[in-house]
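Data availability (excerpt). The following record was deposited with the supplementary files.
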Amino acid sequence: MHPLDALSEIATLLERERASRYRSKAFRAAAAAIEGLSDSELRDAAALRRRKGIGDSTFAVIQQALAGDVPAYLAELRESAGVALVGSTLRAQLRGDLHSHSDWSDGYTPIDLMVAAARALGHEYLALTDHSPRLRVARGLSPERLREQLELVPGFSGDGFTLLSGIEADILDDGALDQEEDLLARLDVVVASAHSKLRMERRPMTRRLVTAVSNPHVDVLGHVTGRLVEGSRGTRPPSQFDAADVFAACAQHGVAVEINSRPERQDPPDELIALALEAGCLFAIDSDAHAPGQLSLLDHGAARAERAGVPPERIVTTWPLARLREWTGRRR
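Predicted structure:
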């Protein structure tokens, strides 16, 4: 295999398993460093070692690929991923993803790499939903930066794929959204998520979420409880709120409840998926990807939705783009 393909696949698999971003970025940097090099340049080991972005591990991968072998590290990651992959008949019905991040906020890579990965997965559409301003730790987009991004988004569509403009807007303490109204109105997709004060008391948290989903710009209620069940960030209990009231508001306003595909979230919990189903809610199976390899995490969300008995027709990410756009434009 070509060394560039080997390095890129390793980065993708590391991203999928949510390894340290520095590990995956090292392999993406090495891939960028050798892109466009001729075979003779790749085989000049001394010059290759001096090239910025090439370290011991990435050099070994390049040499093994040049020798005609599947690099040992890639083989190891493939074996691990093969065990972890989750099968689901619903996964094949998903047409896109409404929650993803780029390096404009806290994602690992530029927009073009996220788009390339989405195309490779066969997506018809991907919503770019970088964070909003108040989430400074995630380099949330100021109104000025969001306007700048909006100018670039149309250039990534074509050949049967559409990059949708969007944002993951922070839900403020009173349920308002963390972005200017005129900008929210311009976006294709608005995901509303709570990132702070997740231990708010039950009644005010209920009011907060109901207010947010009542906003005419909101399309998806993201990672509903904010819980973490595993992973490098540790664990975090779910927020407490009256799920019946929140899901009734979602159903009333046509807001989709997100089934977040990240294994460390598994949000909402199974019992809340059942309550949302009973309330008549729509759902969005999203990756919440912060790197190209994480877009494939949709298989985890699809498997959970399938086990919970969520009908495909109530999952907006199974809908073709024209129907999706009709839904997102319902209240704007």
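Summary of structural features: The longest strand covers residues 162-170.
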